[in-house]
Amino acid sequence: MLSNLLGRAAAAGTGAKVLASSGIIRPYPPAVLVRLARTVKDWGTGPAGGFATLAVRFPDRVGLVDELGELTFGEMHRRSNALARALRARGVGEGDAVALMCRNHRGFVDTTVAAAKLGADLLYLNTAFAGPQLVDVLEREKPTVVVHDEEFTELLADADVEQRVLAWVEGDGNDGAGDDGVPTLEGLVDGADDADLDPPDRHGRIIILTSGTTGTPKGAPRNEAGIDAAISLLSRMPLRHGWRTHIAAPLFHTWGFAHLALAMLLGSTIVLKRRFDPEDCLRTVEEHRCDSLAVIPVFLQRILGLEEGVLQRHSLDSVKVVASSGSALPGDLAVTWMDHFGDNLYNIYGSTEVAYASIATPVDLREAPASAGMPPWGTTVKVYDDEGREVPQGVSGRIFVGNSLLFEGYTGGGGKDMIDGLMATGDVGRIGDDGRIYVEGRDDEMIVSGGENVFPKEVEDCLARHEAVVDVAAVGIDDADYGKRLRAFVVLRNGASADEDELKGWVKQNLARYKVPKEIVFLDELPRNATGKVLKRELKDRTE
Q: 121 lies in a domain?
């Protein structure tokens, strides 16, 4: 990002090229360079140091736009100073944890930076968690303070929380105290000194929770990412300095947070809305002339599900990059998107534990829509068999990843399998003859039906390509004759019709006969969490 870090990265040819092309390497007056070097030395490269350097470099540039208006980088810096002092007065210190359960708005960013300035850890809570999940996570992590939007008050009622702060209050209540006497974030910011603080001895961690689609969410902590992490992402996704970025993906998710971190490096203006609505997303991008859009795949599905007349009203002509991550792109979604909005889609494959493993560019998605693209700079991907031996190209096995962003192990203990310094993603797939990665499914989702291996994802992709299907998920259930059988859950497009026999026939035309689901159940919508992943646990419960 700055001074010596830039120097080291520039020494590696690829790194220098990426930093230069993205506009990160740029001239600054000598006095500014001295301040930048001191800021990074004192505060590091995480949220505290990243946003502090923006206040030095571009104090008057608009850094954030949300439903309350605009904030410059200088204003963001001072707000986080004040909030850090207010949190410290409430007992938050180095090594403590601050839990955050907020939608996408300034309060999320304020709290992230303020906690980092105290050397505290940030625990990001999923806004779609149920009450029992919250109780379990908060009991395990024991944060000193929970900062949350007013709408989540009831969900937190049964949790053992000593101190709470309301980050977003509906109506005109974003200052002073809420109805139950709980202080508001805006009230704390207005009531505290916003002068610079002394840096802590310890840099805080970001703890992002796994999705919890197959069990209790686990905490996956990360220390500050270095410049190499940004070079890796930017090597295959052409984001540029000074762009406006609409982060529609939830900020508590790995992908949403990644774009917040990139904004610190690129000097991007981030545009936030608390809730996603497909047409409102298009309007927001056009109104603010956003250069990039960060989404999860289900958001693309919902946008493309709008009536054709609505889609034709929105050209997204300012957008150069649509960055998608969080789950696989089903069926022909990528090609359909690019046919509507141009070849601007980049899909990132990874996980909470390994961050990003590969990136599919528009070229990849045109030539091989089923692929996950190729590893970016500084990332190694290998495929191993069950005995830990690397398999030849084209042979399926367990996918392992190595990069500078591997997590350190779960906060509750345990971790992911490791081989030769590479970490398991939990997926099965292969590296094709074209060098691209092909993900075939979760290693814990494969079923053996009548002696044949079946991955639900392949069947899901097939059904998603049927013109009447808008959404689909498949799960394995017990079967007395076959051991396991596949049951598919399908959502039809508005106005479309198809029955079970037609869809089974479609699968039979395109896949092996043993991959045809034994049953197809029609639903109005699939159960999903806030990051768009299908809650297959709930679907399995419906079958019993």
A: yes
